[in-house]
Amino acid sequence: MDNILVVYKKNFEEVHDQALESIRNELDTIVSELGISVDYSARETVRRADFIESDLVVVLGGDGTLTSIAHSVDSDTPVMGVNSHPRSEDEEGSYGFYMGSDPTNFPSDIRAAIDGKAIVNRLPRLQAEIETTSGNKIRCDPALNDLLIANTHQYQPSKYRLQRGKDLDRKQYSSGCLFSTFLGQGAWFRHVVDIEGTKFPLSEIKNHYLFVARDLPRSERKDDGSYWKWTQESTIMTSDMHRGYVVSDGWDETHFTRGSTITIDIQGPELQLLTFRSTMLDRVANWLTA
Known about the structure:
- Helices cover about 15% and strands about 35% of the residues.
- By secondary structure, the chain is mainly beta.
- It folds into two domains: about 5-115, Rossmann fold; about 125-270, Tumour Suppressor Smad4 (Sandwich).
- The two termini are about 35 Å apart.
């Protein structure tokens, strides 16, 4: 491992500055011992090109910091999340679901990552492809948590044709469609639809995703996949909106117009996320069944 990139949250709060100083001190020691190159970039200024030569990306912040830059990281580059403000130390801090380390454990964790002894979690990601009426195709950013497809004017209904497999083909209007990975369901999906008590087969975690049409008229809330669904089949939406957008993990927007076709699946590039004391699935074992 020759090159490490540290992406950090910079909002001028003392707790984050202290975490960065602590991590920088440890990395300075590692640089002097091993000759590894370390670069630093604030989340607001980092670009996709910055990740190309990196052998490891260290993300210092919370889940929002990680999801805001993860779409720029390919499937070959491991990512290590470091919670700069753990809730275990301050109730106002970050839960840090995707963050496998913290400033206290960082010295041992970074060395484990460099030595290839970290736990490697290969996480599936959602992706959407937009085909315009002129035939142009645009791949949206991969999403670790969720994708939203909706009318850009949220006070207007999202109108579309919904197709999936051989059994679902219908026109709907709603406040938009939300797609979620298994791990991403806690971010937004469970606040939209009641799936409490649902167990998910362990064998389906990497090739299935969740779908819900938000705020459908009550008469249309049927359990046939047109309301919510756990599926591995691609979902196809044909827009009947003047202008809509795809939003990946609540960050970048990709716009489309009426007549565009949007195909959503879970075939996006995986994210290689490092943890150190438990796997990501260990954290959600209560949602899983063999």
